[in-house]
Amino acid sequence: MPRLVLSLDGVVLREVPLVKERMTIGRRSHNDLVIDNLAVSGEHAVLIQAGGDVYLEDLGSTNGTTVNGQPIKKHLLQSGDVIEIGKYKLKYLADGASGETEVDIDTSQPLRREFYGPGPATIPVRQPGAQAAVTQQAVATIKILSGANAGRELPLVKALTTIGRPGHQVAVITRRPTGYFIAHVEGETFPTVNGVNVGSAAHPLRDKDIIELAGVKIEFNNPGGAA
Q1: pLDDT digits (tens, 9 = 90+) for 40-82
Q2: Closest C-alpha to 56, from 11, 9, 91
Q3: Are 67 and 56 in contact (CB under 8 A)?
Q4: Which has the closest alpha carbon to 16: 115, 88, 74, 113?
Q5: In angstroms, rounded to a whole number, what is the distance separating the alpha carbons of residues 70 and 105?
Q6: Burial class of residue 49 (count of CB atoms within 10 Å of its CB; 0-12, 13-18, 19+)
Q7: Which stretches in the chain have pLDDT values below 50?
Q8: How is the chain classified by DSSP, letter by letter?
């Protein structure tokens, strides 16, 4: 199913599946995707699915809508396109495309891991002769310390890894040039790192940090310290 990944200042807030043929985006509560920000018009834009394609149309908004930095009135979306509305970014991912890894740590169910091929924005560019260096680069991991999946270790091979229990508590670990960060996405309670509430801002992770999320303890391991 095609979807949008909503982010602000580089922090992913949530995913929005495109479940209807027509979905509106705006500040007012009746929209399918509500963005409560003064830079967003009451009815800002609309997404229309037709014949397998998805079109984005600006609804005469005050501040306009851009795709990949270019202002648009109506635009046929391609997977990987980045829509900007106010300060918010919405990355469009076509059906089956993703640059993410999702890890469900529900302690009542066997561990579910879903890996997808990298989208255009996440495919690494390698210089000739650099293959060996890339292969040998260490990748950070997370290790589940408690619950039914205790002992399982997962490499953070994607730019973005979602962890938690949907509908209960969800966080995202992002891989950036400056290191790894964790940010709250869903749930009334924020995750903790080494017993400290991370709050709403992205929190940097260090080797051997202990994350607690959805009642599960997770150890972050990054001996090399590089992203």
Answers
A1: 999 999 999 887 889 999 999 999 999 999 999 999 998 889 9
A2: 91
A3: yes
A4: 88
A5: 39
A6: middle
A7: 99, 106-137
A8: --EEEEEETTEEEEEEE--SSEEEEESSTTSSEE---TTS-TT-EEEEEETTEEEEEE-S-SS--EETTEE-SEEE--TT-EEEETTEEEEEE-TT--SEEEEE--TTS--EEEE----GGGPPP--TT-HHHHHH----EEEE-SSTTTT-EEE--SSEEEEEETTTEEEEEEEETTEEEEEEEESSSPPEETTEE--SS-EE--TT-EEEETTEEEEEE-TT---
R_g over Cα of the chain: 19
Rounded Cα gap, residues 38 and 188, in angstroms: 24
